[in-house]
């Protein structure tokens, strides 16, 4: 592992990760006839689908995944898209082949996205610190080790090592194949690409589609992409929910294209939206559920609005809403009965239930895991909602989407009723994930505050004759009331994930990494190593390539892992322990005085105090870690 202490060293990784995320999918959706910013916004989901699906298929036919298979897969996908459009679709006859494929960027949209990118980088990079900084969250151990496994084996399949969505890991591992970065800094850069590139692009595309394409709204959307702490700041470190971070970051782009296709009714746009679905499912399936939720809410809100305006008879409105309700209830009840995996997901329970009012303040006021209400953000949400209700009623369904997310959050945070998990269980009944989802429509509401503020400012006599000044003040109020008022809070939230104040909340400090690196150099390549996961030793695989038995925190409760974890200290009398060690070629053990906070000592009781265990021989001590050779089997 090569240390990366400066972000400038990560520029090659940033470029490669961005290209792999955008280019394959963009070529596919352009071939399908999807144009404009929506094509770029949805391309990451399509790219991930190409990578994840084709990597799994490659493993099935015995092909090692790499850049050449990615190139071939992209060419095939583009060819299939062109063939589909030739058979069942129709391109815009007024566009030539070159313009049809490459498009023409709109300067105001480019500037708005650039604003979002710069704001995200300016707020995220200083809080993380160094590109090789480890976020101190237990899930990071699993994700980093899986990326390393993909790189070491060339098997990027969804089933490696066990069935788990492979979109996030396959994208990162594919991008790291040229050797632009090691696993840890490469993954940190990947999350930066999601938060600072994919998210602003999707936000600008969605806001322009919902509120119109005026420059004021466009620039406001770029600024609004950095308005929330719940997303992307929170998901960059909490959990750590990296696949959910990716899924949420890509949702605005897919939603923008879905709404565009529903209005234009162009087959190519629907095909582009459909092409994004496999990728979203292989990142985090709840992204599909979120799109279904948003689609149903949009449909219901549009039907109610049509009834209020007299465009549709109320009996037709009631009929359609009744059909949606029946289908929704049946789907919610039937889904966990059909899918055992979903039923397991819905069974998650969280401590710390709060009253409904407290939950409402947390999600609307942004007071999630922080002590104060984000008053500036709250003001913008109110202004934006008011503007949509009074002046931009075509975007009322976006308000309904945001309300739906708020309701889901309150249910997850406050309800103890068993039935609520049927609805919130798709997000593990986790209010943090639902708060991040609320940021998707929330960005549109914040962007809508700019025309609302401009209208208010133009009532002031000095600004009445200066519309440009009023517009500039209105749009700059967004960063002033969010980043300006709460910049310190935002920094502390993310800084706390990467630099916790207590030693027990640190998985591996830089000093501990150095100690384990030196000990790893003593272990012959391929030899297995065992140690309590809570001492950080599972990261030896991700960081140094050492063949560790445990690659997640905590120890699994079944199989050889629990046999070794509870019986290692009695190997002289436990043939089953020796058999398990032999199956995994475990010849070394790591002990340490360091213990991470997520500690399950009953699962690793046999791996504590190795100095007193018969059957091991001390080899070396470095810092808080001691390496032993297994001699008892």
In what range is the share of β-strand residues?
A: under 5%
The average pLDDT is 94
Judged by helices, strands and strand pairing, the structural class is mainly alpha
What does the main sheet amount to? 5 strands, mixed
Strand order of the largest sheet: 2-1-3-5-4
Tell me briefly what this model is.
With 633 residues, the chain is mainly alpha-helical.
What order do the helices and strands come in, and which of them pair?
Layout: H1 11-31, H2 36-60, H3 67-88, H4 97-102, H5 107-128, H6 138-153, H7 167-176, H8 183-211, H9 215-224, H10 229-233, H11 242-264, H12 267-281, H13 286-308, H14 314-338, H15 340-346, H16 356-364, H17 375-391, H18 396-414, H19 421-424, H20 431-457, H21 461-464, H22 467-498, H23 510-520, E1 528-531, H24 539-544, E2 547-548, H25 559-567, H26 575-583, E3 586-592, E4 616-622, E5 625-630
Parallel strand pairs: 1-2, 1-3
Antiparallel strand pairs: 3-5, 4-5
Helix pairs in contact: 1-2, 1-3, 1-7, 1-8, 1-12, 2-3, 2-7, 2-8, 2-11, 2-12, 5-8, 5-9, 5-22, 6-7, 8-9, 8-11, 8-20, 9-20, 9-22, 11-12, 11-13, 11-20, 13-14, 13-18, 14-15, 16-18, 17-20, 17-22, 18-20, 20-22, 25-26
Protein name: 4-amino-4-deoxy-L-arabinose transferase-like glycosyltransferase
InterPro entries: DUF6541
Keywords: Membrane, Transmembrane, Transmembrane helix
Give a structural overview.
The chain has 633 residues and is mainly alpha-helical. It is 64% helix and 4% strand. It has 26 helices and 5 strands. It has helices spanning 11-31, 36-60, 67-88, 97-102, 107-128, 138-153, 167-176, 183-211, 215-224, 229-233, 242-264, 267-281, 286-308, 314-338, 340-346, 356-364, 375-391, 396-414, 421-424, 431-457, 461-464, 467-498, 510-520, 539-544, 559-567, 575-583, and strands at 528-531, 547-548, 586-592, 616-622, 625-630. Strands 2-1-3-5-4 form a 5-stranded mixed β-sheet. Helix 24 links the parallel strand 1 and strand 2. Helix 8 runs parallel beside helix 11. The two termini are 32 Å apart. Residues 98-102 have low confidence and may be disordered.
């Amino acid at each position: 592992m090569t240390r990366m202490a400066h972000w400038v060293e990560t520029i090659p990784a940033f470029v490669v990760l961005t290209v792999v995320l955008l280019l394959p999918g963009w070529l596919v959706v352009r071939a399908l006839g999807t144009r404009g910013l929506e094509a770029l916004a949805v391309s990451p989901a399509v790219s991930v689908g190409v990578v994840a699906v084709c990597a799994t298929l490659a493993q099935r036919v015995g092909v090692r995944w790499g850049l050449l298979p990615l190139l071939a897969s992209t060419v095939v996908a583009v060819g299939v898209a062109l063939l589909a459009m030739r058979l069942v679709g129709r391109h815009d006859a007024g566009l030539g082949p070159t313009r049809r494929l490459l498009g023409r960027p709109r300067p105001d949209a480019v500037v708005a996205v650039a604003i979002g990118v710069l704001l995200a980088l300016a707020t995220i990079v200083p809080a993380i610190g160094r590109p090789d900084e480890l976020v101190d969250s237990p899930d990071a151990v699993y994700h980093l080790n899986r990326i390393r496994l993909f790189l070491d084996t060339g098997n990027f399949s969804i089933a490696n090592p066990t069935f788990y969505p492979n979109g996030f890991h396959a994208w990162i591992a594919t991008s790291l194949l040229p050797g632009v970065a090691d696993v840890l800094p490469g993954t940190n850069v990947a999350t930066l690409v999601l938060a600072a590139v994919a998210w602003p692009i999707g936000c600008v595309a969605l806001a322009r589609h919902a509120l119109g394409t005026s420059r004021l709204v466009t620039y406001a959307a770029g600024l609004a992409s950095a308005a929330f702490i719940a997303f992307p700041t929170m998901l960059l470190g909490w959990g750590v929910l990296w696949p959910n971070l990716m899924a949420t970051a890509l949702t605005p782009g897919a939603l923008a294209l879905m709404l565009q296709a529903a209005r234009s009714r162009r087959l190519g746009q629907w095909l582009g939206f459909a092409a994004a679905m496999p990728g979203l499912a292989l990142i985090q399936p709840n992204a599909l559920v979120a799109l279904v939720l948003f689609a149903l809410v949009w449909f219901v809100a549009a039907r109610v609005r049509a009834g209020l305006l007299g465009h549709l008879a109320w009996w037709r409105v009631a009929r359609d809403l009744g059909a949606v309700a029946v289908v929704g209830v049946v789907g919610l009840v039937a889904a966990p009965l059909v899918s055992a995996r979903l039923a397991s997901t819905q069974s998650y329970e969280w401590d710390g239930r709060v009253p409904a009012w407290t939950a409402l303040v947390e999600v609307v006021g942004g007071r999630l895991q922080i002590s104060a209400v984000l008053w500036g953000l709250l003001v913008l949400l109110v202004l934006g909602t008011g503007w949509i209700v009074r002046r931009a009623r075509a975007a009322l369904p976006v308000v309904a989407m945001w309300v739906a997310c708020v309701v889901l959050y309150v249910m997850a945070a406050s309800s103890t009723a068993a039935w609520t998990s049927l609805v919130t269980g798709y997000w593990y009944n986790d209010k943090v994930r639902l708060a991040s989802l609320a940021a998707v429509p929330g960005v549109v509401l914040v962007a809508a505050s700019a025309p609302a503020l401009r209208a208010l400012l133009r009532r002031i006599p000095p600004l009445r004759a200066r519309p440009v000044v009023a517009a500039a003040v209105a749009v700059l109020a967004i960063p002033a009331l969010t980043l300006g008022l709460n910049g310190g809070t935002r920094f502390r939230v993310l800084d706390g994930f990467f630099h916790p104040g207590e030693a027990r909340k640190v998985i591996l400090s830089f000093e501990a990494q150095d100690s384990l690196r030196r000990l790893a150099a003593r272990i012959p390549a391929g030899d297995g190593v065992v140690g309590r996961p809570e001492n950080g030793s599972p990261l030896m695989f991700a960081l140094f390539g050492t063949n560790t038995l445990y690659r997640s925190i905590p120890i699994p409760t079944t199989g050889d892992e629990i046999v070794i974890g509870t019986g290692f200290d009695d190997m002289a009398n436990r043939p089953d322990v020796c058999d398990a060690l032999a199956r995994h070629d475990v010849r070394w053990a790591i002990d340490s005085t360091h213990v991470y906070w997520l500690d399950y000592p009953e699962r690793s009781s046999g791996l504590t105090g190795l100095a007193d265990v018969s059957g091991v021989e001390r080899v070396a001590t470095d810092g808080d870690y001691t390496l032993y050779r297994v001699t008892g089997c």
